[in-house]
Amino acid sequence: MGRFHPLQPAYLSNPYPYLARLRCTEPVLYSPDLQGYVLTRYGDCAEVLRDDVHFSSDPALESGGMGVSARAARERAALGSAPILANSDGAVHIEQRALLANAFRARAALDRRAAVEELVGTLVADIAPGKPVDFMGELAEPLSLVTLLDFLGIAPEAREAFRRGVVGVMRGRLEGDRDAHAIDDSYRAASELQDVAASCVAGVVKNLTACVAAHEVRQDEMLMLLVHIATAGNAATAFAIGSAFHSFALNPEAWDRIRADPSLLPSAVEECLRFDSPTHLTTRFALEDAAVAGRHIPAGRAVYAVISSANRDPEAFPDPERFDIERKPGRQLAFGGGPHFCLGASLARLEMEAALGVLSQKFARLELATGGFEAAGTLFLRGPRRLVLTVRA
After folding, report:
1. Beta partners for 213?
2. For residue 243, how far is the Cα from the chain centroid?
3. What string of DSSP letters covers 227-250?
4. Which of 63, 225, 363, 374 could disulfide-link 386, Cβ–Cβ 3.0 to 4.6 Å?
């Protein structure tokens, strides 16, 4: 039996050789450490993500310690009875997505293109050719954060309070089963978050507060939707932007091609997401006894769909280790699949395309500094902690 240690430094730095071996030798691996089944083939991952009959997204349904922790935290933490979009299923999930669907439609993201490109230009205005720059701190992280806050409608003066509120509420949901301080903090955070939402006069928050006023959604549900959007849409997009520039720095001929032909940017974005996905894995939980690739999955067990592996499966992508910005797009799973396909996909794609488009016309070359890449991530996300590049005019 193989082992799966996704937080070891060597794995974080480059998980792909290990995942390739696992796809061949044990594509449905039981991990004693995770108490669940690890899927590494594209077909198996896509099947589970689409199957909301046999698999749930709610960790409270897990039959072991994860389920116990999730249920205990929900009973004690602020907003504990409010569903989280990523963990809800069926009618509840459909109703929550409907509240956000108009704001997250592709047209709404495209309407923000000029503003996002202007923000990219401002962030890179002081980047000088020949000087090493940490692209995570100077570009990827502030671009993702500011775009998200503008999209939500959070005024600059309220942004620190919003951050505290989001962090405090999520800490209560994640740690409330074992930390009384996290519970107390979550209630203060929820109150602060409610004050911020009440002050918003634009964006997604304004639309949601109108839904509360019309009794279309409860106040706690609205606040939890904001928490989910903020946590799901920030780090993953920053990692996606950073990983894209890392891939181009290692493949200078691809950079030359988008400089010469900007029409390649949409397919380049898809290839960046496939080649080094910010979503490392995502979880589902068996609602009843099920089977994946002939392997029995007992009811209540967790299933870990490793997106990073699925996106490099040669059965789905010929020559998957090659970074090919003209590869036919549309099949990569970085944004998930099925009912839980990422609502913010259009906005994330726009940010990546804007960043690559502006910089590719501004700079002729990206060079990775010696020791300039440091991997970061959690069980679920991966990307650069630090990405030091030197640009050439």
Report:
1. none
2. 13
3. HHHHHHHSHHHHHHHHHHHHHHHH
4. 374
Phi, then psi, of 371 in degrees rounded to 5: 70, 20
- Give the model confidence (pLDDT) of 10-43 as tens digits: 898 899 999 999 999 999 999 998 999 999 999 9
369 φ, ψ (degrees, to nearest 5) = -70, 150
Digit-coded pLDDT (tens) for 313-358:
999 999 999 999 999 866 899 999 999 999 999 999 999 999 999 9
Residues 315 and 29: their CA atoms lie apart, in Å, by 19
Please answer whether residues 247 and 187 qualify as being in contact, where contact means their C-beta atoms are separated by less than 8 angstroms. Answer: no
In three-state secondary structure terms, 332 is: coil
Strands 281-286 and 28-31: unpaired
**Is the dihedral angle over the CA atoms 149, 151, 155, 158 positive or is it negative?**
negative
Return the ∠ at Cα 11 (arms to 8 and 17), rounded to 5°: 155
Query: What pTM, to 2 d.p., does this model score?
Result: 0.96
Whole-number pLDDT of residue 321: 97
Dist CA 80 CA 273 (whole Å)? 33
pLDDT (mean) for 282-302:
97
Question: How far apart, in whole angstroms, are the C-alpha atoms of residue 80 and residue 172?
Answer: 9
Integer Cα distance of 124 and 165 in angstroms: 30
